[in-house]
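Thought: the user wants the 3D structure for the chain below. I'll pass the sequence to the structure tool as-is, report back what it returns, then summarize two notable features.
Action: structure_tool
Action Input:
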Amino acid sequence: MSAPTQERWYRRGGGAALGMLAIVVLGVGLGFGRADVALLGLPLAATAAVALRRPVGTASVAVAVAVEDDDVVVRVRVEGAAGADFAVLAAGAYEEPTTTVVVSSRTAASLEARLPVLHSGPQEVLRVGGQLFAAGADLVQHLDPQVARATIAPKRERVTSLLLPHRLTNRPGGHAARRLGDGLDFRDLAPFTPGDRLRRIDWRATARSPRPESELIVRRMDATAEAAAVIVLDSRDDVGAAVVEWGSDRPARKGTASLDLARPAVAAIAASYLEAGDRVAFHDLVRTGASARSGGGRRKLEQIRAVVTQTVARPSGTIKAPVLPTAAVVFLVSTFLDEDVAGLAVLWRNAGHRVVAIDVLPTPTLEGADEAHRLAHRILQLERADRLDRLRRVDVTVVPWQDEDHDALLRQAARSRGPR
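Observation:
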């Protein structure tokens, strides 16, 4: 809840003028012996007395925000001073123009508004300001604007397919590796050699051997290994579906934004690998962005979710490529609106990493766009399509996350090549 604002009262001058008028009328009536004129001054004097009284105490306005289901609930409470009459509040949601509301505030008044959740991440939900009036609107108290902010967590999505790196780590894990080890997947039968464990001897195969008295047969298994996954987010852009809003970026009008797709994508990918027992790292590609070191377990998942939920767009940020572990699967989450990020994907692929480009540019809508907007958007889309095609030609997997079948695309890519 925001801190209450307290201000002193200012007199607008109406009560004093009314008091002077009452004095003049009373003076004229008494001076000329006109009782009827003097009686006219009495109501004026009483009204002036009411207008000149000062409220006792101070007033305050406070704003609280709560997220309930799919709505943002904003509660505004005005604490009126004793003797205050009413308050005029100006409230604007999601940086839109304000709406004026008049409420009685003799003691206290509460307003509640339910707003739809438009975007995830940190955002300004409501801005409230206004004035409190007393003494027949002769006294006014200006209330500083109160800003209600909220951080909306991204929706939880699930990814069922894991793309493994071209080479797994040497640490034991949940994936079958293409080398001998102590896994559960049968590889073959072979003669016993020094170093083999006795529990691996297959006595039935030994009994069927041509020389059972001199040669023992052991069952050899494939090793299990851990995958190293790295999620890299390009947070420079947060463009919405409405192309005409790319320049103004008004939250209530731009539609689904790229970070609205990126945040749940990062959380879903991280959850799928961490649940499989792998290690995951998260990096913001912008130099000033937050990161989460490589690790495993539920606490690591909650850390990554918290970091990506707090991520905001940094249009003027500069790129800083993170240091990647050897032979990792790298998920590069971006809109791919420029060459810089595509160049990093090619660089990492040439270094031996398996690279997956997660495209989070929303499906565009051209409603309200003029000819200049349409032409510029057409050129930009042609350049971007060519950029993504070049990534595919160098064996970078491209997955459009705005496509509802992104999990199926990941599953198809997972079957294309396994780890070594």
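Final Answer: Structure generated. Helices lie at 14-31, 35-52, 203-207, 258-275, 298-309, 339-350, 371-393, 406-414. Residues 228-414 form a domain with the Rossmann fold fold (CATH 3.40.50).
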